[in-house]
Amino acid sequence: MSEHVSDSAEWQAVQGHAEKFSSVHLRELFDSDPRRGERLTAQVADLYVDYSKNLVTDEVLAALIALAEKAKLRERIEAMFTGEHINVTEDRAVLHTALRLPRGAELVVDGQDVAHDVHEVLDRMGAFTDRVRSGEWVGATGERIKTVVNIGIGGSDLGPVMAYEALKADASIECRFISNIDPTDLYQKTHDLDPASTLFVIVSKTFGTQETLTNATEARNWLLAGLGGDQSAVAKHFVAVSTNAQRVADFGIDTENMFGFWDWVGGRYSLPSAVGLSVMLAIGKEKFGELLAGYHVVDEHFRTTPLEQNVPALLGLLNVWYDTFLGAQSHAVLPYSQYLHRFAAYLQQLTMESNGKHVRLDGAAVDYQTGEVFWGEPGTNGQHAFYQLIHQGTKLIPADFIGFSVPNHDTGEMHDLFMSNFFAQTGALAFGRTAEEVAAEGVPAQIVPHKVMPGNHPTTTILAEKLTPGVLGQLIALYEHITFTQGTIWEINSFDQWGVELGKVMANQLAPLLTAPSAPASSVDSSTDALIARYRAQRGR
Ligand code: F6P
């Protein structure tokens, strides 16, 4: 059996640094190197990345880069970009980077020019988008489309909703998003809509997901009830995005109104495919093109930049350092932009569905931490909720601060006040407040320990000029490649999700037990049986 990365001397070297690292404080690291705050920075496209407030020395960074070389990160990147079947458990290429190749590029994978296929679909999406936005495409009663309702879940929801919310300043058609199978979601998003001016975009890679098909069926009933029951109305109000044309047709959507993608696009990586159709409808095809161009520039950086300056690689290695070697369990993502209020939720699927794995590519169990818990809220709301625990609690929580110099809506000095919080927080987290400093303010001795801020809490600051479609694409690609870097060091498959599949199968098996006319015989486990009995009683069954 081949040697695992965790058996290597490079891994041991990083481990050695971790064992002696607890005595190092960011205050000393900054005091001993007055240029640290300029030195440990990097630029990728429009993103200025300051990683100086991380718990690393130059030696640690060098050891992490050596570990990345040992894990063959560069070769793995090339394997992904060229379409090798690196998703070994599903025997698939992983080619979300092909979705943002510029027009005219060529990439032949498994005998097929995938770049050509990508642009063919983008052109169809663009033509459809133009028709809807111009009013040429009308509903069954001749009304133009006012609201787009995206029905999908997981990657078929989180990417589109996050990007729509992030780019709302550029949106000229309202979009709503139904994901949960809780009927409340469908009710809330449709009850005040006019079916005559509503377009449903049903998004499902497999077109077999219980939540999406159930919501789509109910949406169709709602539409037909509102428009007098004529089935032909469906063709004017329903389009599909999927890899499975047969199931789309079986559902009753004309495949003329279907936008395809491919099995080499993972759900959580699918926003830049036809899955982003609702976003394109909202912002137009040109701005959607800017989003894709933003992704692409970071893709190129990741593929071609030496590891020492390779921003996604460096940030991924820092995450491995904290999670695997220093024992952090979670990672906060704190965007100082209200428009990015769904960014952490989006990243939760991207990072946790990708790297929440317990065996390596060869099936051997890992004996180290993988896949940290990602979470976060936009600043400054988070400051008044959970920052206390980061500042003075006992846990190691690395945090990413994402901010913009120019606001999308300028009201004079309000943005400056907002950003003063952004800059203040990373300083307070890094350097804290010593007992001497607190006492010097005249604080009574017994209160001093309560006011001490230990500091030494690591943060990375990502600063861009303005949140635009292009910058959003850059940010998403950055986190995709951070996730890839971590998965490579951990030797796991970041592109399957078998754990989620089991839950889907079990829900389908349990559904008949809830609705059967007579109480089912004991069939699951004693806890679930009792809960179902109570549920049935409360439903009058
Ligand atoms: O949540 C599990 C998952 O398989 C995700 O990977 C995927 O994004 C989601 O379900 C939805 O799947 P589909 O697009 O096939 O409906």
List keywords for this structure.
3 domains; globular; binds 6-O-phosphono-beta-D-fructofuranose; Rossmann fold; single chain; 541 residues; SIS_PGI_1; gluconeogenesis
Structure summarized in a few sentences:
InterPro entries: G6P_Isomerase (IPR001672), G6P_Isomerase_C (IPR023096), Phosphoglucose_isomerase_CS (IPR018189), SIS_dom_sf (IPR046348), SIS_PGI_1 (IPR035476), SIS_PGI_2 (IPR035482). This protein is of the alpha/beta class and 541 residues long.
What does this structure look like?
This is Glucose-6-phosphate isomerase. Pfam families: PGI (PF00342). It is found in: Cytoplasm. It is a single chain. By secondary structure, the protein is an alpha/beta fold. It folds into three domains: 26-85 and 305-490, Rossmann fold; 96-288, Glucose-6-phosphate isomerase like protein, domain 1 (Rossmann fold, 3-Layer(aba) Sandwich); 505-539, no CATH class. The chain is 47% helix and 11% strand. The protein contains 22 helices and 13 strands. It has helices spanning 9-19, 26-32, 36-39, 58-70, 73-81, 114-134, 158-166, 183-190, 210-226, 234-237, 245-251, 277-283, 285-304, 311-325, 343-355, 387-392, 414-431, 435-440, 448-451, 469-490, 498-515, 526-538; strands at 41-44, 47-50, 108-109, 112-113, 147-151, 174-178, 198-203, 238-242, 258-260, 330-335, 373-375, 399-404, 459-464. The strands form three sheets. A six-stranded mixed beta sheet has the order 1-2-13-12-10-11, with helices on both faces. Strands 6-5-7-8-9 form a five-stranded parallel beta sheet, sandwiched between helices. Helix 11 (245-251) links the parallel strand 8 (238-242) and strand 9 (258-260). The chain is globular, with a radius of gyration of 25 Å. The N and C termini lie far apart (56 Å). The model has no long low-confidence stretch (mean pLDDT 96). It binds 6-O-phosphono-beta-D-fructofuranose.
